[in-house]
Amino acid sequence: MPSFTHECLVDLFRARPQLAAELLAWAGLVRLGAVQEVKMLESSLTVPTPTELRADGVLWVRGDVELSAILEVQLRPDPQKRRSWPLYIASQHARRAAPSVLLVVTLDEATAAWAAAPIHLGPGSVVTPTVFGPKQIPRLLDPALAWENPEAAVLSALAHAQDEDAAKVSLLALQAVQGNPLLTEDMTLQYTELVLSALSLSARALLEKTMFLKSFNPQTEYVKWLVREREEYLSRGIAKGVEAELPKAVAAELPKAVAAELPKAVAAELPRAVATKLAQAEHEIALHTVLDILSARFGEPSSELYAKLSGLTAAQLTALRRPLVTLPSLAELPALIRSLDSAT
Questions:
Q1: Are residues 122 and 47 in the same domain?
Q2: Domain span at residue 105?
Q3: Strands 125-127 and 119-122
Q4: Do residues 43 and 55 lie in contact, with contact meaning Cβ atoms separated by under 8 Å?
Q5: Res 43: pLDDT
Q6: Exposure check for the chain: N or C terminus, fewer CB within 10 A?
Q7: pLDDT of res. 335
Q8: Residue 37 belongs to what H/E stretch?
Q9: What is the edge-to-edge ordering of all strands in the sheet holding 100-105?
Q10: Which residues, 6+ apart, have CB-to-CB distance to 175 below 8 Å?
């Protein structure tokens, strides 16, 4: 099943087919200024045989040259793909008497190197994919260009999300999609989530220091979770939670007397009470964070799933958050939870 990231990358090209022409121009296969039309075609490449072939997208580029670009988003090596890609080329060539190119988009160098290797079919028959990974996708750092080409800005941010300047590239992409008249509200939210979810924790922390997220008005549960993760909120929220949960009698006495004047029994129990309530507050925050991510991605969790998650420790819930962002389906959640149990 295609992942959230995979589908969002394909959506970039569905929303703006011109992005494919820009990549092909960067590869030297077309002249961007001469391109007159780029349109998305039916992605099924099935020929009259029992086997169905379906690429992530097929785009028709018309200009001083005409060619078909078969789009494949590849997030990890898959040996089966290198057997089916030549079939894609042959099938599209049979449909349209024009050159065809296999355009592979990936987000890591290892997959890019794997995909770029020529596919030898026999003597004189070679298929060479045109691959765009982090090395081939330029860093888009021009605000005006990013505003005019928001999908290109998002692709640039994703490709360089693990680089040293990830925060800078991602900030520009986030600014390019906020309030952009070229995008619908749903597209803005999808692109925002995609860019933020690709960042490492350190890059995200650096991005927060620019003050952008402090003024950003979150629209979805996932982005709200990212904002809630801020250290200032957590420290303040835990402190308030502990204060609210302390026994009312003790809470009323604290402003009036120092610890030495409290009954010895209360003074002895206070550290344990605080520690207990602190642990409960931490567990509650971690649980609701996981529930927010699940609700945003798969809908409201069932009562059985809620009970299962409630039984996890705060540390297990915290460890569960990041894998949930890219979890392909809810059916794989039990195995993920079991892996946490075995790890502890």
A1: yes
A2: 4-132
A3: antiparallel
A4: yes
A5: 64
A6: N
A7: 84
A8: strand 37-41
A9: 37-41, 57-62, 66-73, 100-105, 130-132
A10: 143, 146, 212
The whole-angstrom separation of Cα 287 and Cα 289 is 5
- 157 with 203, same domain: the answer is yes
CB 133 within 8 A of CB 107: yes
Confidence band for 181, pLDDT divided at 50, 70 and 90: very high
Give the highest mean pLDDT range of 127-136, 166-175, 284-293.
127-136
CB neighbour list of residue 7: distance below 8 Å, 6 or more residues apart: none
Q: Are residues 252 and 331 in the same domain?
A: yes
pLDDT tens figures, 289-306: 778 777 777 777 888 888
- Asked if residue 192 and residue 123 are part of one domain, the reply reads no
pLDDT digits (tens, 9 = 90+) for 305-318: 888 888 888 888 88
Shared domain check, 206 and 286 = no
Tokens matching residue 231? 């250290």
Number of domains the chain contains: 3
Global model pTM greater than 0.90: no
**Do 117 and 188 sit in the same domain of this protein?**
no
